[in-house]
Inverse folding.
């Protein structure tokens, strides 16, 4: 058996952490784009559309992410193709992130006073113009802290992709543990690397939130 | 032909009918005060004229533009009537100038330079030319309401709807807003205002509409309505507000 | 696509599913109660506790909130035995859930405590209650009432997150689904069934939290 130094362990984990970062970015950006589209549908005056998106959100918020990954993995498999783990993982994470982001952003849009909609309507703006020039610029500002906060959930969510066989930080932890028989050290390091990725995001979300509250109090 | 024609307008919220068949014709240049207790339907009527509420029955037209429930018709109508709100509803992320320029550029596709010229002119008109670059939260309530008036005027409407535009203001700020409205009236702007300022209504308006329980209960020139109320409801209302 | 969904295995494996559901419910019952209690203690410590306690509790909360539950679980189940702390998979799963909910609950409850009007503390003190008594009798219940909806959502999130305990062979609902798919090769169907059950469980857990809230806060006074 090969001897692993602490540095060997850490190096292997850090190399795998690149995949965690990449998958997080893809999921967050993909989820954000899909979420934006769903947001427009969710706040649409067309009842059936808004309701359908509401059910979508409830479905993804009311079931385990792990189940969603299994379903993506085996569901895509039904089409007869051999599904690579990264594809199923990415798809599940994007759909899942989109559901949460849509709900977060809807809250922000709805927190904009009704008078803003009415004033812009009385000036003759259409719905898209109202969104583009009046509502979104205001909603965006209050959406930033919770959105950054949610990115932490995405990073942590990528850990589940190890279960369907995608090799990222968590999976690497299991592999390295099996090779070294040092679970305490390995999982300790894995946790610390996640912490190093997530904590700055959490902290900046808090700071942004505080800044926003101060700005609001000055009104 | 009347400028604004309101015919048999009905409006219900659920089972609650707040407008029970309103008829009102407004001639160009008229200044009309709508008075009445809260819940009498006066604000709802104003909001219906601007299409902010859909009507359950009847019809409304402004200079030939019919109120209908689609964006094309609504836009055509709203280009003819501007609206001023109780809570000002300025866009907080834009400066006073930006507030006045936005809808010109977005709705009318006016060029930026031209929109700015118009914005400065309108802000001057309400006495706030020097506040072009101020954000709403840097302005007093009275100033914000005057910017809101400038914003509506910049769209060059042929009539203005004013929904209790001084009710949210501190007493000392009311007069500066009313002065602007008085000037607009003198210039011949058609005005429909829901108001509690009875003295202003008496001095400036050509007709006063008293609404009660979703109907036009009394209507007439202010000297008649205020001096010789025909119904006990109006007498009671005027007594309450201390302007019998 | 020529695939026909087949649920004919369902009656045969219903007992396995039921057993999994019971374990999942047991996990969230224990995790929920103990986790909220831990959360209350930590919230008190961070908001009103002695200085020496604030730092370690803060570190715990930040560590848990910024690492995946899966890794917390692995650390407890695989890591701790190497320093002599050994436990069965069910205990490990329970412990991980309590620790996890404790950290999230802490921050939620702390927000509720911090929204308490200052006069409440002063009133309690003026009645000669100690700070701890004031917290226990005056501050705590209205604080919990304020954040109960958020706390309920968190309990649901932790319940859904518990599906990963199958990875240390805790025989929960997900474990049952994995078992069934390995026997029947009907993976998609097995996970559809378990997903639907999770959805129902989420509704039930939320309902239970609402009922508990109604029992704890019979009068809808404090804002």
């Amino acid at each position: 058996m090969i001897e692993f130094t602490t540095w060997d362990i850490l190096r292997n984990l850090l190399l795998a952490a690149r995949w965690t970062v990449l998958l997080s970015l893809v999921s967050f950006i993909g989820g954000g784009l899909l979420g934006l589209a769903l947001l427009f549908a969710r706040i649409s005056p067309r009842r059936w559309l808004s309701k359908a998106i509401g059910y979508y959100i409830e479905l993804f918020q009311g079931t385990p992410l792990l189940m969603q990954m299994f379903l993506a993995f085996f569901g895509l498999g039904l089409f007869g193709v051999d599904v690579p783990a990264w594809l199923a993982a990415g798809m599940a994470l994007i759909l899942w992130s989109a559901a949460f982001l849509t709900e977060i952003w809807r809250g922000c849009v709805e927190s904009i006073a009704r008078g803003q909609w009415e004033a812009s309507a009385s000036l003759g703006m259409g719905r898209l113009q109202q969104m583009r020039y009046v509502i979104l610029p205001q909603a965006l500002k209050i959406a930033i802290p919770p959105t950054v906060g949610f990115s932490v959930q995405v990073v942590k969510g990528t850990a589940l992709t190890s279960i369907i066989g995608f090799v990222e930080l968590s999976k690497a932890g299991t592999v390295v543990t099996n090779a070294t028989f040092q679970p305490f050290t390995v999982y300790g390091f894995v946790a610390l690397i996640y912490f190093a990725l997530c904590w700055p995001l959490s902290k900046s979300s808090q700071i942004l939130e505080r800044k926003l509250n101060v700005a609001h109090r000055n009104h | 032909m009347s400028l604004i024609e309101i015919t048999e307008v009905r409006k219900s919220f659920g089972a609650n009918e707040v407008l029970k068949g309103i008829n009102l014709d407004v001639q160009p240049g008229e200044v009309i005060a709508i008075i009445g207790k809260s819940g009498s339907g006066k604000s709802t009527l104003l909001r219906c004229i601007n299409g902010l509420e859909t009507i359950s029955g009847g019809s409304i037209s402004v200079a030939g533009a019919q109120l209908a429930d689609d964006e094309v018709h609504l836009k055509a109508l709203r280009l003819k009537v501007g609206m001023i709100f109780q809570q000002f509803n300025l866009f907080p992320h834009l400066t006073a100038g930006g507030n006045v320029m936005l809808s010109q550029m977005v709705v009318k596709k006016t060029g930026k330079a031209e929109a700015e010229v118009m914005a400065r002119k309108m802000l001057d008109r309400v006495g706030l030319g020097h506040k072009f670059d101020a954000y709403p939260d840097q302005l007093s309530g009275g100033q914000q309401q005057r910017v809101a008036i400038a914003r509506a005027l910049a769209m060059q409407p042929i009539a203005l709807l004013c929904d209790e535009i001084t009710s949210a203001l501190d007493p000392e700020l009311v007069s500066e807003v009313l002065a602007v409205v008085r000037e607009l009236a003198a210039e011949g702007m058609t005005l429909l205002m829901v108001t509690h300022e009875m003295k202003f209504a008496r001095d400036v308006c050509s007709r006063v509409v008293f609404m009660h329980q979703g109907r036009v209960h009394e209507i007439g020139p202010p000297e008649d309505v205020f001096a010789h109320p025909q119904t006990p409801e109006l007498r009671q209302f005027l007594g309450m507000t201390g302007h019998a | 696509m020529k695939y026909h969904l087949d649920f004919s295995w369902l009656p045969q494996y219903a007992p396995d599913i039921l057993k999994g559901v019971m374990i999942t419910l047991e996990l969230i019952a224990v995790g929920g109660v103990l986790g909220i209690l831990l959360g209350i203690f930590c919230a008190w410590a961070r908001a009103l506790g002695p200085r020496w306690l604030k730092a370690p509790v803060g570190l715990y909360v930040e560590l848990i909130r910024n690492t995946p539950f899966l890794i917390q679980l692995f650390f407890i189940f695989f890591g701790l035995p190497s320093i002599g702390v050994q436990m069965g998979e069910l205990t490990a799963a329970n412990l991980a859930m309590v620790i996890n909910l404790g950290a999230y609950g802490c921050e939620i409850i702390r927000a509720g405590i911090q929204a308490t009007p200052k006069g409440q503390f002063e009133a309690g003190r003026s009645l000669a209650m100690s700070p701890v008594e004031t917290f226990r009798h005056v501050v705590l219940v209205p604080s919990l009432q304020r954040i109960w909806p958020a706390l309920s959502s968190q309990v649901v999130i932790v319940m859904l997150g518990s599906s990963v305990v199958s990875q240390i062979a805790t025989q929960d609902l997900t474990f049952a689904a994995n078992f069934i798919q390995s026997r029947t090769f009907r993976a998609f169907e097995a996970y559809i069934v378990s997903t639907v059950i999770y959805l129902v469980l989420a509704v039930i857990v939320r309902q239970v939290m609402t009922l508990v809230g109604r029992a704890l806060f019979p009068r809808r006074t404090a804002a």
